[in-house]
Amino acid sequence: MGTKALGIVLVGVLGCEAAYGQAKPSDPCTVADRSFAAHLLPEARSGYEACLAAGQVTFEILSNLGAVYSQLSQFDRAIPTYRQALALNPDNPFLHLNLGLAFYKSDKVREAAVEFSRTLILDPDNLIPASSGSANTSRLFSFFTSRR
Q1: Are 73 and 53 in contact, with CB atoms under 8 Å apart?
Q2: Beta-carbon-side half-sphere exposure of residue 136 (alpha carbons within 13 Å)
Q3: In whole angstroms, what is the distance from residue 73 CA to residue 17 CA?
Q4: Which of 86, 107, 117, 140 has an alpha carbon within 20 to 30 A of 123's alpha carbon?
Q5: Domains of the chain, residue spans
Q6: Largest CA distance in the chain
Q7: Residue of 136 and 106 predicted with greater confidence
Q8: Which whole-number Å values give the CA distances from 136 to 52, 64, 85, 114, 133, in the listed order?
Q9: Backbone dihedral angles phi then psi of residue 74, each to the nearest 5 degrees
């Protein structure tokens, strides 16, 4: 995952703990956030799934769970999770970018192109060449320039 998307994910991680005020260290969302920040992906996945099962459905939890699934190459689970997050925050360009990457890695190029296009509509600066952007920006730039 690229620097720009990682920044959004980490904002989401910090946002999850903040959303619940003084969260208990044993709270599944707190454990999931810390596991994700430490790149302990199976633990983060279990924690975020427990949060959702407990009815704590937020944009941040869904976004982070989608990122965990993507990093575990579970794109069949990442895609619907990102879509759920987009239902809560439809104008988030980074979610569209992450969904596009999940589609792309699942060989669903047309769906990826739609999501990448939405990313560019919401954030036109996302088509900056690799020398000045993140890894995700670089992938997006490469995707569009290689398809001409």
Answers
A1: no
A2: 24
A3: 26
A4: 107
A5: 3-146
A6: 52
A7: 106
A8: 27, 16, 19, 16, 8
A9: -100, 65
